[in-house]
Design goal:
The chain has 205 residues and is α+β, with helices and mostly antiparallel strands. It folds into 2 domains: 61 residues; 110 residues, no CATH class. It is built from 7 helices and 7 strands. The strands form 2 sheets. The protein has a 4-stranded antiparallel β-sheet. Strands 5-6-7 form a 3-stranded antiparallel β-sheet. A hairpin with a 2-residue loop joins β3 and β4. α1 packs antiparallel against α2.
């Protein structure tokens, strides 16, 4: 099994879910309190049960989004990069990776080039640095990936991924280290090889 490195949470998902789950929780608790008030006043059972059900559903969805905030991440391995989201997991072979580059999030997605709701999402993170992974080909069709990935993973229709993590320098360094094979596993293997050679008899003695 390929050795895995550190997991880097995808900021796009944590940022979006941080916007949604508080509103769902607040609405859910409000409806539950309202349902209790209707029940206490002796209204028909179906009224407070309906409101309580909707409130409970909102609380459940809010807690689910809260739990999913850290489930979207990228993780370098010795032979591939894993891109995981709540509904999709991709293993991107380094053989597909043509080159990496850094860019400014706001420069890649200027307000006039995206929809209004996307611009609102980008605004607080516009100054952050992203890593653009340019590929020889996508691991699956782009149309299929767009069903599960945010549009902010793609700056255009060319094969690539836009990766936004908090510690982009560490992620980039670890990714390049894994790609080049300069990992702890490689160093350990060299030490084992040298140890075996040192125990072999020297015929020149």
């Amino acid at each position: 099994m390929a050795k895995g490195g550190r997991r880097y949470p995808l900021v796009i998902y944590t940022h979006m879910l941080n916007r949604w789950y508080p509103a769902l929780l607040a609405l859910g608790f409000f409806l539950l309190v309202l349902a209790w008030g209707i029940y206490a006043r002796g209204f028909e059972q179906w009224r407070w049960l309906a409101i309580a059900s909707i409130g409970g559903l909102n609380v459940f969805l809010g807690l689910s989004l809260l739990a999913l905030r850290k489930s979207a991440y990228v993780q370098p391995f010795s032979d591939h990069l894993r891109l995981a989201t709540p509904f999709l997991r991709l293993n991107i072979s380094y053989k597909r990776l043509r080159r990496t580059s850094s860019a400014n999030m706001g420069a890649l997605f200027p307000p006039k080039s995206v929809s209004k709701w996307q611009a609102e999402i980008i605004e607080p993170i516009a100054k952050m640095t992203v890593i653009v992974l340019e590929l020889t080909a996508f691991p699956m069709s782009q149309s299929s990936m767009r069903l599960f990935l945010s549009p902010l993973f793609f700056k255009d229709k060319t094969p690539h991924f836009v990766i936004l993590v908090n510690d982009w320098m560490r992620f980039s360094s670890e990714l390049e280290s894994m790609r080049s094979g300069t990992t702890g596993a490689t160093t350990a293997q060299k030490k084992r090889d040298n140890s075996i050679l040192s125990r072999l008899p020297n015929k020149n003695k």
